[in-house]
Amino acid sequence: MARALVNLAVGTVVFFLLFLLSQSNPSTSPPRLLPPPHHGARPAMVLPLFPSSKNSSRTFLHSHRHLLRSDSHSSHPNARMRLYDDLLLNGYYTTRLWIGTPPQQFALIVDTGSTVTYVPCATCEQCGRHQDPKFQPDLSSTYQPVKCNLDCNCDSDRVQCIYERQYAEMSSSSGVLGEDIISFGNQSELVPQRAVFGCENEETGDLYSQHADGIMGLGRGDLSVVDQLVEKGVISDSFSLCYGGMDIGGGAMVLGGISAPSDMVFSYADPVRSPYYSIGLKEIHVAGKQLSLNPSVFDGKYGTVLDSGTTYAYLPEPAFLAFKEAILKELNGLKQIRGPDPNYSDICFSTASSDVSELSKTFPTVEMVFGHQQKLLLSPENYLFRHSKVHGAYCLGIFQNEKDPTTLLGGIIVRNTLVTYDREHSKIGFWKTNCSELWERLHITGALSPTPSSSGKGNSTESPTTTASDGSPHYDFPGKIQIGKIILDMSLSTNHSYLKPQINKLTEFIAKELDVNASQVHLLNFTSEGNSSLVRLAIVPSDSSTYIYKETARNIISRLAEHRVKLPDTFGNYQLVQWKVEPSTKQGKKVTVYECKDMVGAKLYGGGYGSYHNSGDWIISLWSVGYVET
């Protein structure tokens, strides 16, 4: 999956010339920040274009340039959107955009290092097979081509504006610029807006092969979605990303301002120094001890860059060596083992537990300190990744950036962290949270329109697959339900007699595509309907849990409803006809708080951990009322 990066042999003069050009001409922008690989170390992954174990490189040669509520200082709405996939497992995070009238859906990789959004065009004969159908301008009543003008590169006939992307591993994207209505989904306060985007006419290399449809550019530049919306005056000059944790993918994104949590940590982000999102890192602490480093070590070349498209973190040589030494000193009692890939000299440790929540008992905390002593606390999941071949083993996800003095912080650093790119005030904020429960934690209400209808059976919540007016689907559940089962009714275009001997393989494929264990997928019913087949499945919690997280349930339903589950052609086409959820039957009994003493560990659902008092009553160490497993 790791991708080797090419060192940009760009001198200071050349860089600033490119930067100045990017400000005057939206069809060009500075090259992408790509630190070089080095022998034996895992290279940086800058927004991999598809999940791959191959080593390849890329660089831009030519580029186009209420949790609470919206920002309390602004009357602008925001576009609240979901993130899908996982940066380490899938190679990227994607979001959904709907383009045109009627809307056509696309899965786009979110990238703070790119400044244009593009999707495959219906006229593209050199485009790969992606997640969704190609964009068809002729089917959109609101599409308009961007005519040739002084501010863009034009086609050979000087009729229409064009764009081009070239990458170092010889993949490329090129096409025409068009303008149409872009919708942001049913969670968005922001109404659909007209925006310019790229309509691809040719893809090569990895761009041709990737599963995602295209890229959503969030960088600084006239063609960036953020810049266009800000220029129109419909959002504040800000956006936020929140990546899921080690065991939970997905996350959330907000285009526009939000009210920052009171304990959010901020760093100054210099908008002049470079076109990248640079922050003012001053110190790193390991287990409470400051690394003996001059702060200038984090200020070389482009400084400290935060990039949503980079997977891991990369430190200049002096900083990495000091960090490595401090970590090894703290973990001298752990057994070091070989990494999962013999091509890299990963630093890995074997532990007794594979529970992410237990990592902080073994691995030290790490702090990144910004100006004014603003400290970002990194938990182990922010600098470790799972060993793919050894159960209970973890490897460092922070590497040396060879001889490049740039500090590059990728997605691993901000797992389960809300990152707000407040461009208006030249600062970037960090807030540790559970990104899969971001909206609940930020107390946003009414953002999802519920579509349940009573099934007449117990307390289950049932809903067909429905579509909002902007083309985005609804999936929602009652606020207090703990989901014990998801029932899925699917129609497949395959003949019943042909599918019957393959039914077990079908459930295995579905489990794999939904990122659940095969034991969690149960076949409830299998019938014939003409030349098609009807399948009813149940998704149940894993053996280690009594319920399914709501965000996990939404992810499962949305993957099927939005046809992001890719099955072998032998199973034909499928349609999610209906879904419903049923509450967990293992919620336990409600208990009252008692004095904490004579405790033994017991799992508490609904608030922390409980303990058993020898009088026979359950008592709660967090002094709260909850449920214990009975």
UniProtKB/TrEMBL annotation:
One of its GO terms (biological process) is proteolysis. It comes from the Eukaryota. Residues 1-24 form the signal peptide. Residues 449-474 are annotated as: Disordered. It holds the Pfam family TAXi_N. InterPro entries: Aspartic_peptidase_A1 (IPR001461), Aspartic_peptidase_AS (IPR001969), Pepsin-like_plant (IPR034161), PEPTIDASE_A1 (IPR033121), Peptidase_aspartic_dom_sf (IPR021109), TAXi_C (IPR032799), TAXi_N (IPR032861). The keyword Glycoprotein applies. The active site is at D111, D307. Residues 449-470 have a biased composition (Polar residues). Keywords: Aspartyl protease, Glycoprotein, Hydrolase, Protease, Signal. GO terms for molecular function: aspartic-type endopeptidase activity. SUPFAM superfamilies: Acid proteases (SSF50630). Residues 93-431 form the Peptidase A1 domain. The keyword Protease applies. Belongs to the peptidase A1 family. This is Peptidase A1 domain-containing protein.
